[in-house]
Specification:
Number of domains: 1
Helix content: under 10%
Shape: globular
Order of helices and strands: EEEEE
């Protein structure tokens, strides 16, 4: 099983335009798929978002 770790955005960023899980500043719906476009964070639909942490997408069931 792959370890799941949230990465603070002030410590590291993912490669640009790679879909990852993000933690937003919305307390009612904090976790979404999204990406860093090289300049700012966006939800998967492209809407700009404030992000505090990110994590690589988990592998789907049966992928190993």
């Amino acid at each position: 099983m792959q370890a799941f770790t949230w990465v603070p955005v002030n410590e590291s960023l993912p490669d640009a335009d790679v879909t990852v899980l993000i933690v937003t500043d919305d307390p009612d719906n904090p976790v979404w798929p999204g990406f860093y476009d090289g300049e700012q964070w966006r939800l998967a639909d492209g809407f700009p978002q404030i992000v505090t942490h990110w994590a690589p997408m988990p592998e789907p069931p049966g992928s190993r």
